[in-house]
């Protein structure tokens, strides 16, 4: 059931020629050619216009009236069918723009669907199959299957009956005068589209709704289409491509292993016709473009998700990057913070190229998702991009460009790791050998086709020929379809939080739109990023290589539980209205860690000094909990683990680390006593560890945290 304005709709009945397919013009041409061949006279435009929507019998009667009783109408029609089929088989069925999007939306709205066409079944089936839309329809009623053709309502009444619906419960889509009369007399909800013939007053009077084209109807339909819920992990992407091009600036772990999925699900009804993604990694670029697709592996459920329609471009090729920014409706900027300074120039050049390519008075807004894993990421991006823009143009134009577009902060909610070049190369070698072995296989092996119905001997012979032809021509590509490259290992989290700034995002399935994105950024920064980093440092110091393996260590599991409890205590106090988000994100984080067997501790724990900055993910939680009297022992240990990690993995001198600590403490909003106590505890632990007086086994967090050293200090 679907509510469209004031109508409750259960079914959709479509005329074919002129409504779904732009075949009326083609039909005019072939009928003129056929009549010229057989009677020496072309059928007139007036006669052909009068035949629109008529059954074959009615059109024949009209031909006899205008061209004489002896006119060989059946032969002319047969010859026109042959000419039309030749054209369609060579060039395909001319589909009305927007048709597939409409069919997809109506089907996903739960409507039963039928075709009610004056064409013969043989023609109708071939056209529907050729156009790849037969799959949308439950019932097909054709002109050679009814006693009375249009404008009689029989064909629509029959289609509604076959769907077990009342005519008044059905959309009836038409383009011709005879067709709309048929739908009106059947008692349906009549939707009229303009085709060759300009609708007259009678046609408009019989229509409940009139649209100039399918896209106008699609726009209305979109308003009333329900927002589809968050997709399941293994739910397939929409089959229908929309007219949008989108981009991913940074084909890294998050860009390729998360954002590409979000863009592919889009609104659940359609997906972008092209997804650009930029990278400097030539191996990744050539591999994906060669295979035409790649996969994201979800090890937790042994599922590989295939991502298609990707066009990987060279991030150093400015012409390609400019094309992405000019053509796209949305671009996700997926960059590491340390890459932003260099990439800001490319972003600015892309936006400036878009500005120059469009009419200054009609600038089409671009939606930019800022995926930087940092609180205040949008402001940082805007500052850097504006700085780069003023090197290309004056300040007024730079400000104008930035004001035209929607910059949206985000919070990523998934752990993803990217395959190393070494592992990708090994994968390529293995799959290349499989393919070469396939090419050497004996081509004489026959594929058996199971009979699903009794066939004649001739049909059996033809079927064998068809199968053999398909086998020889399809198998090379078929074998490649089972050899998709696995480029990313990802956890199962689906949603992404996005700042509610752009109208383009209103129906995106995987996006949770929020007005106050800073709250979610704060939660993510402390609850996910902070706990993740401290866990990685601790796990690495214990000798573990990956997060998933480390979570099997009771010490690590216990530590993570303590960390989450302390961070959540502070956040729940600071953001009391975000309790549900806190609980969900904490549960999601723990589940993700349990299965993060491909997530290296070295990747998660990288860049410790930045993460140990005064206002970053670790010390921000320490400061809040200390100043509010909440437990902080696990958090303090996490800071110590970060410095120990720097000593062990990066061989940083302890004096340098203590100097860094002093600088951060000076910036913290704490009393002098608290700052002094924190410094005392951390430097004491680092010195004891360096002198061999303290080992990792001494860092177990007690059940009842004690503040003895802090209070004594």
From TrEMBL:
It comes from the Bacteria. Residues 524-668 form the Mannitol dehydrogenase C-terminal domain. GO terms for molecular function: hydrolase activity; metal ion binding; oxidoreductase activity. Keywords: Carbohydrate metabolism, Hydrolase, Magnesium, Metal-binding, Oxidoreductase. Its cofactor is Mg(2+). Belongs to the HAD-like hydrolase superfamily. CbbY/CbbZ/Gph/YieH family. This is HAD-IA family hydrolase.
């Amino acid at each position: 059931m679907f509510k469209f304005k004031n109508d409750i709709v259960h079914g959709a009945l479509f005329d074919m020629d002129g409504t779904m397919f732009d075949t009326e013009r083609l039909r005019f041409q072939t009928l003129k050619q056929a009549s010229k061949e057989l009677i020496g006279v072309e059928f007139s435009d007036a006669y052909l216009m009068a035949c629109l929507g008529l059954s074959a019998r009615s059109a024949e009667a009209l031909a006899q009236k205008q061209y004489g009783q002896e006119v060989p109408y059946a032969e002319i029609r047969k010859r026109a069918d042959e000419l039309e089929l030749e054209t369609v088989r060579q060039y395909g069925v001319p589909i009305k723009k927007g048709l597939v999007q409409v069919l997809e939306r109506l089907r996903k709205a739960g409507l039963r669907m039928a075709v009610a066409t004056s064409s013969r079944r043989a023609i109708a089936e071939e056209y529907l199959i050729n156009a790849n839309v037969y799959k949308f329809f439950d019932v097909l009623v054709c002109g050679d299957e009814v006693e009375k053709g249009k404008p009689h309502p029989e064909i629509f009444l029959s289609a509604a009956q076959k769907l077990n619906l009342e005519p008044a419960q059905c959309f009836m889509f038409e383009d011709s005068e005879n067709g709309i009369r048929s739908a009106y007399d059947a008692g349906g909800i009549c939707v009229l589209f303009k085709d060759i013939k300009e609708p007259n007053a009678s046609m408009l009077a019989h229509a409940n709704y009139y649209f100039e084209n399918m896209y106008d109807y699609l726009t209305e339909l979109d308003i009333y289409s329900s927002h589809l819920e968050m997709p399941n992990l293994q739910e397939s992407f929409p089959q229908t491509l929309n007219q949008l091009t989108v981009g991913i600036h940074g084909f890294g772990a998050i860009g390729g292993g998360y954002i590409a999925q979000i863009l592919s699900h889009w609104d659940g009804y359609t997906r972008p016709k092209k997804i650009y993604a930029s990278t400097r990694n030539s191996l990744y670029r050539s591999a994906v473009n060669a295979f035409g697709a790649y996969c994201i592996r979800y090890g937790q459920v042994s599922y590989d998700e295939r991502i298609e329609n990707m066009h990987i471009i060279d991030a150093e090729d400015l012409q390609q990057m400019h094309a992405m920014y000019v053509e796209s409706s949305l671009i996700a900027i997926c960059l590491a913070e340390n890459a932003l300074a260099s990439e800001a120039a490319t972003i600015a050049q892309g936006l400036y190229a878009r500005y120059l390519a469009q009419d200054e008075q009609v600038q089409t807004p671009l939606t930019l998702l800022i995926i930087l894993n940092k609180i205040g990421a949008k402001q940082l991006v805007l500052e850097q991009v504006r700085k780069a823009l003023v090197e290309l143009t004056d300040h007024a134009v730079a400000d104008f460009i930035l004001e035209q577009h929607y910059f949206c902060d985000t919070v990523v909610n998934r752990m993803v790791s990217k395959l190393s070049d070494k592992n990708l190369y090994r994968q390529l070698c293995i799959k290349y050998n499989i393919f070469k072995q396939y090419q050497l296989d004996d081509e004489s092996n026959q594929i058996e086709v199971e009979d699903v119905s009794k066939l004649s001997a001739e049909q059996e012979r033809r079927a064998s020929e068809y199968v053999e032809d398909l086998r020889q021509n399809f198998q090379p590509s078929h074998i490649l379809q089972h050899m998709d490259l696995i480029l990313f290992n990802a956890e199962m989290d689906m949603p992404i939080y996005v700042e509610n700034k752009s109208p383009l995002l209103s129906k995106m399935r995987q996006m949770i739109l929020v007005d106050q994105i800073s709250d979610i950024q704060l939660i993510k920064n402390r609850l996910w990023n902070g706990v993740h980093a401290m866990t990685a440092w601790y796990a690495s110091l214990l000798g573990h290589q990956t997060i998933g393996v480390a979570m099997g260590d009771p010490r690590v599991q216990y530590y993570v539980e303590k960390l989450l409890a302390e961070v959540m205590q502070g956040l729940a106090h600071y953001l009391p209205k975000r309790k549900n988000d806190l609980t969900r994100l904490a549960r999601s984080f723990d589940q993700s860690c349990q299965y993060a067997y491909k997530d290296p501790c070295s990747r998660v724990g990288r860049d410790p000094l930045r993460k140990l900055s005064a206002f970053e993910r670790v010390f921000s939680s320490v400061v809040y909990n200390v100043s509010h009297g909440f437990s902080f022992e696990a958090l303090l240990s996490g800071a110590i683990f970060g410095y120990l990690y720097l000593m062990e993995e990066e061989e940083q001198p302890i004096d340098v680390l203590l100097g860094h600590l002093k600088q951060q403490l000076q910036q913290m909003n704490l009393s002098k006593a608290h700052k002094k106590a924190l410094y005392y505890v951390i430097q004491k632990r680092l010195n004891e560890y360096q002198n061999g007086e303290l080992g990792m086994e001494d860092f177990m967090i007690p059940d009842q945290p004690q503040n003895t050293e802090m209070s004594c200090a």
